[in-house]
Design brief:
Length: 130
Amino acid sequence: MNTHYATLGLLANASPDTIRQAYRRLVLLTHPDRTPNPAAHQRFLAVNDAYDVLSNPTRRAAYDAACGGRRLPSPHHPASAGPDRSAAAARLPGIAPTDAYSLRGGVCPLPAVVTGGGRVQRDIRRATVR
C-alpha cells in the first residue's frame, strides 16, 4: 500500500466520516490484542499513521498537495533508495569489483541474508511467519 488512502481502502475524495469509519473498522481487525500476528501489528501501525494524516484537515491538504493525485512510492521502493550501492562499491579506490570476492577466498564478503541469497532468506522468512 503506497498511499494513506490505499492503506484505509479509500478514494482520495473520501469524506471525513468515511475516513473515520474505515479507520475504526481496520483498527478492530488489526489491533494487536485481537490479532497476535506481527504482520497485523505492522498493518495496525500503518492504519494509525494514515488516519493521523487524513483526519487532520491541514495535514491532509499538505499530503494531497505533495502527492499530486499520484501514488507515492513506499520508502522501501527502489526508486526512493538513493545512489546505487553496487555502483558505489565498484568505484572504491584501489579495489577492482572482482577483488571483493578474492579478499575472502572466493566467498562473498556479505552474508546471504544481506545479499538476498536464496535458502537462508527463505528459512528466516519461514521462521518469522510461524
